[in-house]
Amino acid sequence: xxxxxxxxxxxxxxxxxxxxxxxxxxxxxxxxxxxxxxxxxxxxxxxxxxxxxxxxxxxxxxxxxxxxxxxxxxxxxxxxxxxxxxxxxxxxxxxxxxxxxxxxxxxxxxxxxxxxxxxxxxxxxxxxxxxxxxxxxxxxxxxxxxxxxxxxxxxxxxxxxxxxxxxxxxxxxxxxxxxxxxxxxxxxxxxxxxxxxxxxxxxxxxxxxxxxxxxxxxxxxxxxxxxxxxxxxxxxxxxxxxxxxxxxxxx
Length: 251
Ligand SMILES: [Zn+2]
Fold this sequence. Notes:
By secondary structure, the chain is of the alpha+beta class. It contains five helices and 14 strands. A hairpin with a 2-residue loop joins β3 and β4. It starts with a strand and ends in a 12-residue tail after the last strand. The C terminus is likely disordered. The structure holds zinc ion. The site of zinc ion has 5 residues, from loops.
């Protein structure tokens, strides 16, 4: 689930006593992201941001492993993903070892926090978000009851499980999503832009409906590609420069 920075801010505090040392922890709202900024491994992919309370090593804990990428002025923290279904380097891990949320941190918030804790990496040191990151974020955000994790077969399941689509026809909506997913078979391409909040207006998104007990509706794609996928029902990635046909504001 994506959380919006307007409701949460980064906060730093002294390490919890059980971690020891004189380090600093980093929180986002109620979520403790990093228990020792100074001892975390920020530069690996994924980053290991949780330090073992026994020995002080990040990779000993291997908890909350996180992929961090940047938009023009936001950091996206997301669950790590893997480019191949066959090669999954962390397949032995339990789900709690992978960061199971997605949050956006505004650059201004990051820079202000870094002014307090200079050992935080510079904003520019994080990789630029790619189309693969965006699509995997969408797959992580999808209703699992309707769309399986295997993206190669997701459209097949969509066609079986989706009973209605509005305002697009089902076939049109699914073909837009298939078009996005086909980018996963190409090398990743950098995306320049930022996440924006959608107005609460049905013109700006398409809703899929499922005849399944776990859930009924899912706001997903917009009628105008590219990368107008909807996340958590209220955010979309807006490429830069902003298309003049659709001006989104964060208000
Ligand atoms: Zn340890």
